[in-house]
Amino acid sequence: MKRSGNILIMLLLISAAAISQPDWVRKAITQADSFSVDQASAEITLFKTKEVTLDNNGHTSTDVRVVTKVLDPSEKAVGIVRELKTNTISIRNLKGWHVSGGVVEVLSDVDVAEFSITDTKGYYDESHVMIAHFPVISSGDIVAYEYTIYDDDWTGFHQRYIFQTQEPVLYSRFSIEVPDQWTIHKSEWNLGEIIFEKIDNRFIWTARNLPFRPEEPLMPPWSFLMRRVDVSAYNSVDKGTMNFSTWTKVA
Fold first, then answer.
1. pLDDT at 16
2. 42 in Cβ contact with 139 (< 8 Å)
3. 3-state secondary structure of 49
4. What are the mean pLDDT values of the chain's consecutive 10-residue runs (251 residues total)?
5. Which residues pair with 82 in a beta bridge?
6. HSE (side-chain half, CA atoms, 13 Å) at 197
7. Which residue stretches of 171-226 are H helix?
């Protein structure tokens, strides 16, 4: 009887561990307490990382982690993940957690859908948009996702990362690692206090404590104001590899 009780306790502990949020999510939630936000914010990016690794064949694997705190659930875009899927781009190992009042809900298959990019009659396109979201989210809830993007085409050479458009950001990091004899061409917009560093073959940009950006009269579109970086990777020795170091080489 005692042995059966111990087995039951172990199963319960394993089950609880399976549905609890991972440590990186829990840490982001803890750090959010000291981050003040504007009342107009719809959500806060507590933690977001995109780690790209490029191999010698030009294929990329990208590990993504994101934790957001929802403030205004009426905004349709909050707490949602959108990613492109094609015949060469796949999304794998997708996981998600919804934390509300200490209760953790795990993302299920029914919370993930794919939609065609075009609905033009008679037009076929293998590209789709994957959307993952939890059906019921309240103000103050935490939503987190983790997944890996695999790109087997030349499109992986080019990467774009948006640190912030308008909503506040507590922590955001983008990095790309290239093989030996490869390098990158980078274009940066409105990065300001975002820190850049290079460690071995990995190029890293890190943003911390970016406040809410209010709309102002006669301001340009947000597409001109977003904090972002564009990166093109290329083999600096092998001239046979597609090279995007200059506009003339792109053309």
1. 41
2. no
3. strand
4. 45 44 92 78 94 92 96 87 92 96 94 81 73 93 97 90 95 96 94 95 96 90 94 82 54 48
5. 131
6. 7
7. 222-225
pLDDT value for 33: 77
CA dist 91 and 104 (Å) reads 23
Going by C-alpha positions, the residue among 52, 75, 94, 73 that lies closest to residue 165 is 75
Task: Bin 104: left if φ > 0, else alpha if -120 < ψ < 50, else beta.
Answer: beta
Assign 136 to helix, strand or coil. coil
Residues composing the chain: 251
| Structural tokens at position 205 | 């940009």
Q: Read off the tokens for 136.
A: 């019921």
Burial label for 85, CB within 10 Å (0-12, 13-18, 19+), is: middle
Phi-psi region of 102 (alpha: psi -120 to 50; beta: other; left: phi over 0): left
Residue 38 tokens read as: 């504007």
83 within 8 A of 61, measured Cβ to Cβ: no
Q: How far is CA 213 from the centre of its chain?
A: 20
| Nearest residue to 62 (alpha-carbon basis) of 73, 72, 49 | 49
Sequence letter at residue 189: W
